[in-house]
Amino acid sequence: MSDRAAVRRRGRRAARLLRGCVLPGALCALAGVLTAPGQAAAAQAAECRLRPAEQHVDWTGRRFTGDLLCEVEPGHIRLQSRSTSTVSGEMLFTPAWFVCWKQGSTYPGTDLWYYTQGDQVVTTPAAKAWGYVPATSVKAPEHPFPNLAKCPWT
After folding, report:
1. CB atoms closer than 10 angstroms to residue 17
2. Residue 40 in 3-state DSSP?
3. What pLDDT score does 2 carry?
4. Strand spans (E) along the chain
5. CA 154, 54, 85, 38: dihedral to nearest 10 degrees?
6. How many helices and strands in the chain, by DSSP H and E?
7. CA-only gyration radius of the chain, Å
8. What phi and psi values does residue 149 have, to the nearest 5 degrees?
9. Least confident segment among 7-11, 69-73, 81-85, 89-93
10. Do 102 and 113 touch, CB atoms closer than 8 A?
11. How do residues 11-69 score in pLDDT, each as one tens digit?
12. Which of 66, 110, 122, 146 is least surrounded by CB atoms within 10 angstroms?
């Protein structure tokens, strides 16, 4: 099972548990219920790791071998590596994986973007939520992450 599938399953489980929680949010969290995506991750140190054997196929049929698994800030996935690009998906869960990086338009704090598949399609269903997130959303110790492939297109 992929890490993304496991994360989705944990998110659905947390949502079910939360629906049954009648305590204030902080007490539910103390009882072991995740109250919001990323909340527990924010309390932990950011940890990223390369997974050289992971396989992915994007919406165009391009195949990727290897990815980076890293904590993220949930948010928009953009179809292109520009802050003005169409939002194709949403990143709802953390950690998330990324297959490559590239330079794009300047986004507050960076011009580096990571290519991934979001958790939820927003627009452009044919793109299957594939697109870019700004490097500032990826909780990596440095950008671009060492030894993660640069995207083969410009």
Report:
1. 15
2. helix
3. 52
4. 49-57, 63-70, 75-78, 87-91, 96-98, 100-107, 110-117, 120-121, 130-134
5. -140
6. 3, 9
7. 16
8. -60, 145
9. 7-11
10. yes
11. 443 443 333 333 343 333 333 333 344 444 343 446 899 999 999 999 999 999 999 99
12. 146
Tokens 């109250």 label which residue?
A: 35
- Token pair 């195949």 is at which residue? 63
Looking at residue 95, its amino acid is: P
Average pLDDT estimate for 123-129: 95
> Which pTM value belongs to this model?
0.71
Tell me how long the chain is.
154
* Structure confidence by residue, pLDDT tens digits, 55-69: 999 999 999 999 999
Do residues 132 and 148 make contact, with C-beta atoms less than 8 angstroms apart? no
Handedness of CA 110, 116, 120, 126 (dihedral sign): positive
